[in-house]
Write a structure and sequence with these properties.
Layout (H helix, E strand, L loop, with lengths): L17 H8 L10 E9 L4 E9 L15 E5 L19 H10 L7 E5 L7 H5 L19 H16 L9 E6 L1 H11 L7 E5 L5 H9 L9 E7 L11 H14 L7 E6 L5 H15 L5
Helix pairs in contact: 2-8
């Protein structure tokens, strides 16, 4: 449950540790996608490659009584990792976005919405698309990255494609964008480089420190921010004694937003026990969705 205080910290007391997750993932698991999940083949001219869009429509989307109904939409990066352990590219974990959003919609805690999982370009090319600046810690290092093209990829290719095929309620207040790690970094970059496109933002464990926090420095004087901004992070993501931590980096971003006029009630900070993986992002997803797309119980 989301606390009433807008900027808040939620401690998850019972959280599966990374060691437990690794023990569990050692045994074979069945594929885990559920709900009305549609896979769309998609070609990008911006990046000159192909990928899949994984579109989860809400319960009752195809019912006769809902055929004229329009729905808000949440675009999420790393689409392979959202719905199914069989497609997750880093480990046998997933966000459980399908189970979570469908349950919250049925319970009335989240309004019915469409979730669009945008596949990354694969392990090797993922940094190329998600990094607007080179990351000196990346191995192998990439001197030339193209994250600066990601806003154009989203607004000129992905969004028109989805809006043509699905009953999307348009406008910034009905449009969300999110991601984790590099996907969280590029989410922050996109919303600071677009005007009145995304009104609801989900940023998990973002890699804001790339090139000495260049993404924050670029946005230092930006006054055009989404209406609702969610940040999630784990207390166990960084090695003990780390000078920079994910929770600390999120605090820097929040201070920037507050300085640029974003009111407290527009920001939700959710710091919990957890590592840098899909299990942690899945555990925090209900709080994110309830803040960004609140329902009417």
């Amino acid at each position: 449950m989301i606390r009433q205080a807008p900027i808040c910290l939620i401690a998850v007391l019972a959280f599966k540790s990374l060691g437990q997750a690794n023990q569990t993932s050692a045994s074979p698991k069945a594929c885990s996608a559920t709900g009305d999940l549609e896979i769309q083949e998609f070609r990008s001219d911006v990046f000159d490659n192909a990928r899949k869009l994984r579109v989860l429509v809400p319960p009752g989307y195809s019912d006769q009584r809902n055929l004229e109904r329009l729905y808000p939409v949440l675009y999420l990066n790393d689409g392979q990792n959202l719905f199914d352990i069989c497609t997750s590219i880093f480990n046998p974990m997933e966000w459980r976005a399908d189970e979570t959003v469908n349950r919250l919609v049925v319970e009335g805690r989240v309004e019915p919405l469409i979730i669009v999982g945008i596949d990354n370009a694969g392990k090797h090319e993922r940094p190329n698309e998600y990094l607007p600046f080179p990351d000196a810690t990346l191995r192998p290092y990439m001197a030339n990255v193209h994250g600066i093209d990601y806003p154009r990829f989203l607004t000129q290719e992905v969004m028109p494609f989805v809006e043509k095929k699905y009953r999307v309620r348009k406008g910034a207040s009905n449009t969300g964008l999110g991601g984790s790690s590099y996907g969280g970094l590029i989410t922050f970059y996109v919303v600071s480089h677009t005007h009145n496109v995304f009104g609801r933002v989900l940023i998990e464990s973002p890699s804001l420190e790339v090139m000495d926090f260049a993404v924050l420095k670029e946005a230092a004087n930006n006054r055009d921010w989404p209406g609702r901004i969610y940040f999630g992070g784990g207390t166990d993501e960084d090695p003990p004694g780390s000078r920079e931590t994910i929770p600390g980096d999120i605090s820097k971003a929040v201070r920037l937003l507050r300085k640029n006029g974003v009111s407290r009630e527009r920001i939700f900070v959710n710091i919990t026990p957890g590592h840098h993986n899909e299990e942690a992002w899945a555990a925090r997803l209900p709080a994110a969705l309830e803040f960004l797309f609140p329902g009417h119980p």
